[in-house]
Design goal:
It comes from Ornithinibacillus xuwenensis. This is DRTGG domain-containing protein. Keywords: CBS domain, DNA-binding, Transcription, Transcription regulation. The protein has 435 residues and is of the alpha+beta class. The protein has helices spanning 4-14, 23-30, 34-46, 74-81, 106-112, 125-133, 148-157, 168-187, 191-194, 210-220, 240-243, 252-255, 269-279, 299-311, 319-326, 354-371, and strands at residues 20-21, 50-53, 57-60, 72-73, 84-87, 95-96, 98-101, 117-121, 137-140, 161-163, 196-197, 204-205, 224-228, 234-239, 257-258, 263-264, 283-287, 293-298, 328-329, 337-340, 376-386, 395-405, 409-418, 421-433. A six-stranded antiparallel β-sheet has the order 19-20-22-23-24-21, covered by helices on one side. Strand 12, helix 10 and strand 13 form a beta-alpha-beta unit.
Length: 435
């Protein structure tokens, strides 16, 4: 019989996506204590069934499959950017496919905005309206509010409209980082992702005999099977070595090895692979906290999973990655660099973000030191002068000049130009790390 904790989890799973959940209501409906309800809801949040949002509450969300970890729900976005819901609460459980920074003219902005996306934009009410009509949610940066009719439209479309005090660059960096963090987790394959479930796994019971072992062996081509008691708990393991020379009517309980090696579903693939090689075993039972069998992982399962990991492309890009990919050295002078200002590099005004400017200066300085074979740099002090705003689609020239360089210290002066006009300067002092 399922425990009260398991009953609550099953109840939460049965709720419609988007349903609100409260500790008090769960406790009342299922006749459990509020402490039990609270712990079960927290467990549901840990496994991705619900999301708790400040000033909104806890809602049932769609549990993401592991292969879709590069997507976030709007409820998760609110927590990431410390946002406030202005309208469209009924759509918080929905998943965003991509986000667009609205640092451009309205018609250009709408070319990138589509159903399921998130428009990150400042105090531009018309852009809010157009995005909602296109089926996109809206994240308003700079702490701005919006018009009441926009909020009503968001409620009608069931598309969230969210406000945050951060600027567009910071918000984009935070969302990118959240996706990147999940992608890193995605690459860690767990036993639960690859094991054969208990419904499909072959096993023996305490009351079985060696004759039953031969039957299961012939059906599965394996020679190692877990032995379960009446409560489906793994109490032993039996292999071909254990039955050699024994009568077929001999009880499995008499020949099995007690206290076998088992793993849990959250054990990493790397650990299981190492253990199988080290211990020389071909099958390991997978159990839950109460030692009940939930599956079996074989050596073939592990090998297939390891081969699959090697074939997977590595994906995920932070704002820093975007900046680095945009910086290239000139053919005629490798100590001068150029970069194009793309939408992800701008603030809510459509000009180059101060944070991105700093990243460009640091990246160009780092590459200069590498070219001069001085080593990698660790920034110790950075003074930046923002002289003129830089609009979107600008092509920048970045000119770092090494002023001083010792064995472990460097001082670099950097000038940044747009169309031959000086738009910013920086003085960077850094420690040098030998490669």
């Amino acid at each position: 019989m399922a425990t009260k904790h398991e009953q609550i989890i099953q109840h939460i799973i049965s709720l419609n996506v988007g349903s609100k959940i409260s500790v008090r209501q769960i406790a009342k409906n299922l006749n459990v204590s509020e402490g039990t309800a609270y712990r079960a809801i927290k467990e549901a949040e840990n496994i991705g069934l619900v999301s708790t949002i400040e000033r909104v509450g806890t809602i049932r969300i769609e549990r993401k499959k592991k292969e879709n970890f590069d997507r976030l729900t709007f409820a998760e976005v609110i927590n990431i950017v410390d946002g406030q819901v202005l309208g469209g609460r009924e759509g918080l459980h929905k998943t965003l496919n991509k986000f667009v920074i609205g640092a451009m003219q309205l018609d250009a902005m709408m070319r990138y905005t589509e159903a399921g996306s998130l428009l990150i934009v400042g105090n531009r009410v018309k852009a809010h309206e157009l995005a909602l009509n296109e089926g996109a949610a809206v994240l308003i940066t700079g702490g701005f509010d919006t018009e009441d009719y926009i909020k009503r439209l968001a409620d009608e479309k069931q598309l969230p409209i969210i406000s945050t005090s951060y600027d567009s660059f910071t918000v984009a960096a935070m969302i990118n980082r959240a996706i990147y963090d999940q992608l890193i987790k995605k690459e860690i394959v767990l036993v639960g992702d690859i094991c054969t479930t208990s419904e499909q796994a072959q096993y023996l019971k305490l009351g079985d005999t060696i004759r039953d072992w031969y039957e299961v062996n012939e059906a599965s081509a394996h020679s190692r099977f877990p032995v379960l008691d009446e409560k489906n708990r793994v109490v032993g393991i039996v292999t071909s070595k254990d039955i050699i020379g024994k009568e077929r009517e001999t009880s499995i309980e008499k020949v099995m090895t007690r206290n076998p090696i088992v793993v849990q579903s959250k054990t990493s693939l790397a650990y299981v692979a190492h253990m199988m090689v080290w211990e020389g075993i071909e099958v390991v039972p997978v159990v839950n906290e109460s030692a009940s069998l939930i599956g079996i992982v074989s050596r073939q399962d592990v090998l297939k999973a390891l081969q699959q990991i090697q074939r997977q492309p590595q994906i995920g890009e932070t704002i820093d990655d975007i900046v680095k990919n945009n910086v290239v050295s000139l053919e005629e002078d490798k100590t001068i660099f150029q970069a194009k200002v793309i939408p992800q590099m701008t603030n809510q005004l459509g000009t180059l973000s101060h944070g991105v400017f700093t990243s460009l200066v640091t990246e160009a300085s780092s590459r200069l030191l590498l070219q001069l074979k001085k080593g990698d740099l660790v920034v110790e002090n950075l003074t930046v002068y923002f002289l003129k705003p830089v609009p979107i689609d600008s092509n920048l020239l970045i000119k770092p000049l090494l002023l001083e360089a010792g064995r472990i210290y460097a001082k670099i002066d950097v000038e940044v130009y747009n169309e031959k006009k000086l738009v910013g300067k920086a003085l960077l002092m850094a420690q040098i790390m030998d490669r």
